[in-house]
Amino acid sequence: MPALSPWVLLPFAARKPRSFAERKATLSRRTAFPGRHRRPGKADTRVVAAFLAAAVLLFHSAAANAQPVDQTTPVTPADIQKVLLAMETGGSHFDPRQLQMLGRPGLSGVLDHLLPDTAAAAPPRPDSGRTAALIAQLGHERFRVREAATLQLSEMGSQIKPALIEAAEHADAEIAWRAKRILRKWEAKQEDAPQENPQVAALTAYLQHIEDDGCLMELAVRTRKALERGIPGGWRYELLWQSLMAIARSRREDCANALRPLLAHRDVGVPLLVVDRLGYKAGNPFFPAVMREALQSSRSEIAFAAIRALPERLDYPGKDDVRRRLIAVFAGKDEVLKLYAAFPLMRDFDDPAALDCLLAEASNPDTERRTKALGWLGHRSVLGRPVPAKLLESFTPLLKSKDFDTRRTAAETLAMYAGEEVVRSLLPLLDDPNSQFAEQMAYRLDHQPDKQMLRRVLSAAAKDDANETVRQRAATVLENLDRRQ
Known about the structure:
Elements: H1 20-32, H2 42-65, H3 77-90, H4 97-100, H5 103-114, H6 128-137, H7 143-155, H8 161-167, H9 173-192, H10 198-207, H11 213-227, H12 234-250, H13 253-257, H14 269-278, H15 289-294, H16 300-308, H17 319-330, H18 335-349, H19 352-361, H20 367-377, H21 389-399, H22 404-414, H23 420-426, H24 435-446, H25 451-464, H26 468-484
Helix pairs in contact: 3-10, 5-11, 6-7, 8-9, 10-12, 11-12, 12-14, 14-16, 16-18, 17-18, 18-19, 19-20, 20-22, 21-22, 24-26, 25-26
């Protein structure tokens, strides 16, 4: 469709013909005040408004028709410098189309500037044999040798961080102490690193709308290379954080899976960052293969983070694989992971064994485990669902507990479900010793979805219940229902 010409707006700026009275009044003002500057009339302002509208239209039309640079046309260093300067001055107000038009070569050039250690011509990685030799010298019998090795390792940078993390657990106390000292020194430098960079803010604006397949893969590969050297500090961390978010928003399996080698990184903070950023976010049910693999990580911290990042009762690619891996975790020996795997198995797959596990935990003497299980059994995802018979049976004695916290938590969990059995189980709590809790139960009953059933049960309770307080409060809830009808 051809772009709308801005000149079509000009007729709308034309002023209607003036009447004789208007022309006479104008002439009188000019005669009475001959020295006064003429004020702009309506015609002037309309013409100006029309030209401004035309300018805006032209700008948006050009932007809409802007296309990425032809990949056969090389992007010059001058092009990259021009974009970098615009990013430096624009910051978060940078127009991302300036970088989008340069395509993948443009993004690559910008990342060469911001993450030079990930560029194609990046400095070679340190020799692992030399690193190991220097780490061994940290425990040398001569002080000068130990100090020299410490200095050299410090200057090699965070690219050898995995080796030093391993050395920090060395059996030789001197080696372990010096390795920890180097790591603390790097951490202090990271804390002192600049936290903001206008070019990172500009790139963030670009990443919010990145869609080109080639650019996304370039971003994924460069992000992986940067994180291979460990968790950075300052604005580099923000840059990588935003890059991972952009990869998650793209829902591109190949881009997300390009990060798979990071799951084996020695510094557990690296895979934890990847899992956290690629995990489920509201409105984006994306759970790629690298996340499914993390569910069965040999490091419990990573598996735990992957379980917590699962989408909630949504259909998404790989859901069957998720179920298979969760069942494997549930059958494992790690009791904490088993408990956490039981929740999504119950919530998303209606797994009976997982429900049994959570019901058993609901009576666990350990307060933390009991509270966690009760919270999951009453999670918002079960709101309005029919109550499982096993859950109703298990919760009947909890509703009569003398311990108020146990009674309250069990009632709030049960109230998330729907059905006549739920209503009848909660009715006795209208006479709970804690009056505030009793009022809360009346509120929960009032919000049961099946109003016809609720009226029938409340009417019977208001007439026939043996407890006078229950009769009165059931009648009050019934009155509220009728009033809103």
